[in-house]
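Technical note accompanying the year-one report. For the benefit of new consortium partners, we illustrate the data format agreed upon in the data management plan: each record pairs a sequence with a structure-token string. No post-processing was applied to the example shown here.
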Amino acid sequence: MAEARMYCAIPSSKKGGATAGKGFTRRCAKLVKEQRARIYILRRCATMLLCWYIHGDD
């Protein structure tokens, strides 16, 4: 779960001005999208396991 601790770091060099900002935004958007996908998968798995537990072998 080390990826969950990832964060959007501000580039150390401010060369490029607006292009550095776009790269930063794009990188953060990519990380957010990736984390949302992981949370979605975990939620689906938890729901499936809970349903199996509740319904069991009737």
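Partners are asked to follow this layout when depositing records. The CA atoms of residues 15 and 21 lie 10 Å apart.
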